[in-house]
Amino acid sequence: GAVVSQHPSRVICKSGTSVKIECRSLDFQATTMFWYRQFPKQSLMLMATSNEGSKATYEQGVEKDKFLINHASLTLSTLTVTSAHPEDSSFYICSASGGSGVTDTQYFGPGTRLTVL
Amino acid sequence: AQRVTQPEKLLSVFKGAPVELKCNYSYSGSPELFWYVQYSRQRLQLLLRHISRESIKGFTADLNKGETSFHLKKPFAQEEDSAMYYCALAGGGNKLTFGTGTQLKVEL
Fold first, then answer.
1. How does residue A7 score in pLDDT terms, banded at 50, 70 and 90?
2. Residues with pLDDT less than 70, chain B
3. Residue B54 to residue A58: CA distance in whole angstroms
C-alpha cells in the first residue's frame, strides 16, 4: 500500500515551453502533497506544500508564478513549470501523506527528470 | 529555522562491521526525526522514525536531545544495506527538512 506515482518519469523540452508533472496517490487519499527539487548529488529541497482544494504554500525563494501547483483532488497534484529555462533542469520529486496525525508519513514518488534545452 | 546536518557524504565499511551514520539537527521546537533510504534506482522510502522506537532491517536510531543528534546504527552491515541514507526533521505543518545524505557502501 501507499504507492505514489509520477508522470512522466523523464521529459525533455525546449526553452520557453511549459511542462506539467503529475503526482498521484494510487491507493490512498492524500490530503497533503509536497513537491521537492533535487540537484545532482544534493539533498531534496522542499518547494511547496499543497492541500487538496486550497492554494499551495511555497517555500521562500520559490516563484509561485513559475512553478504552478494544483491539487484538485485527493489523489492528484500537478506541478507546471512555466516558461522553462535550462536552469530549471532538475529532478522533481513529489510526496503524499494522508493520515490525520500531526506528522504523517510521507510516501515518495519515483521522481521526474526534467531537462530544458 | 530548522537544519539537518549529515557530515559524511560517503561511508565505506566491510560486511559484518558496525555502521553508524551521523545526523545532527537544529530546531527550536520539539523535533520529530526520520531516516529515509534510497536504494539504487529506487524511490526514497521511510526507514524509521524516532517516535516509533523500532528497529527496521536491523537499524536503530535514538534521539539524543542533549546532543541534538539522531545517529543511525546497525551492529553488522550487510551488502544489501548499500544505499543513500537521508536524515530528516519534521517541523511545523509536517514539512520535512532533509540532510545532504550519506552514501553507505558495504564492501565484501
1. very high
2. 93
3. 33
Cα dihedral across residues B36, B42, B43, B46: positive or negative:
negative
SS3 of residue B93 by DSSP: helix
Q: Is the distance from CB of B100 to CB of B72 less than 8 angstroms? A: no
The reported pLDDT for the residue numbered A31 is 86
The reply to whether residue A34 touches residue B93, judged by beta carbons under 8 angstroms, is no
The band of A99, judged by pLDDT with boundaries at 50, 70 and 90, is: low
CA distances from A55 to A71, A72, A108 (A): 8, 10, 21
CA nearest to B31, candidates B99, B86, B88, B100: B88
Q: Which residues pair with A6 in a beta bridge?
A: A23
Strand A67-73 versus strand A44-51 pairing type = unpaired
Positive or negative torsion for Cα A47, A49, B38, B27: positive
Residue A4: list chain B partners with CB under 8 A: 43
Nearest residue in B to A9, CA atom:
B43
Is it the case that residue A35 has pLDDT exceeding 90?
Answer: yes
Task: Count the residues in chain B.
Answer: 108
Q: Inform me whether the pLDDT recorded for A111 exceeds 60.
A: yes
Residue at A27: amino acid letter = D
Distance of CA A25 to the CA centre of its chain: 12
d(CA B18, CA A50): 40
In angstroms, the CA B18 to CA B107 distance is: 12
Q: Count of CB atoms within 10 A of residue A28's CB?
A: 17
CB-closest option in B44, B45, B94 to A97: B94
